[in-house]
Amino acid sequence: MLANICTLFERDYHYGVGVLVNSLYNHGFRGVVWVGYRGTLPPWINSLKEGQGYQEFCVAEDCVIRFIKLTTSTFFSNYKPDFMLQLWENYCPEVEALFYFDPDIVNKRDWNFYTDWVNHGIALCEDAYDYMPANHPYRFAWKELAESYGFPCQRELDRYYNTGFIGVKQSQKSILLLWQKLLHTFEEAGYINLQDFCLAFNRYPYFQTDQCVLNLALMLSSEPLSTVSAMGMDFGGVSVDIMSHASGSQIKPWRKQLIFNALNGSPPTLTDKAYWQNTQTPMQLYSLWEYNQKKIALRCAAGIGRFIRRS
User: Fold this and answer.
1) CB 4 within 8 A of CB 31
2) Which end of the chain has fewer CB within 10 Å, C or N?
C-alpha cells in the first residue's frame, strides 16, 4: 500500500515534528511526510529542494519531508480535514492512504502495523476521556443540530475518539469531507469559530474542540472503523506500544523542566521517555551536550519520581 503521513505545526512544535518523523523512520516508515506550517521552518533543516508548491528536505535514505507554507487563519486543530483533502487533491492523488499525526505524538510501533490497521477501517484511537455513552446529552445536542441541517445519524457510538491521529484510505475519504462540511457549516451558522481551539465550550451545541465534531461525523457516517483504546496513546500511563501522545494539559516534552516537575510530584511520562529516545537519529535535533544533559535529567527525575508523587 502506498501511504503518506501528514502533520501541522507552528512555533516550537517543530521539535515534535522532528521526533515524530524520527520515530516513524526508526520503526520502518519510508516515504513522504507532508508538513503544513505557519511561521518559519525548523532550525534543524539544512538544505531544501524546491518542489511544486512545497520544499523538500531529505531525512534519510528513502524518506523525505515536504513542507507546505500555509496562510490560513484557522486554528490548526480545526484544519486537519482541509489539509488532508488538499494533499489528495493537489499533491499526492496516487496515495492510497493518509495518516495524520499531531506533532506531539511519538510513534512506537512498526510501520506495517499501521498499513494493516487502516485496511480494516478508519484508524482511530480513543481519547483519554474515552467513554461518552450514546445517550449522553452532548450527543443528543449534536444529533439534533446535525439533523436540522440535513445530516441524519447513521449509528450510535459509546466511545469518544482523539483527533491527534487518524488513518484514512482514499476510498473512505468521505469521512474527511463530512468532518470538513460540519466544521464549515457550523461556523457559517455562528455556532463555532474555527480560529479558536475551544469551539463552543459549555454552551449549545457543546462542541468543546474539533474532536467533538469528528465524533459527530463518525455518528453520521456508515464507513467502517478500526479503533484502539486510550492505551494506544499511552493515556493514563498505560501503554500498548502504539503511540505516545502529550495531549491535553501535559507539558510538551521539549518544554518540560524534568527535575523541577519531578520535585513537584510529576515524574517523567511515557511520552517524555519516548520523545528523548527519538531526538538524535536519523535527524539530530539537539547537540550531543544538550542530549546528554537531558538524559541525565531524565534519569534523575525518574529517581525522584519514585519518592515524590502528586496526591
Assistant:
1) yes
2) C
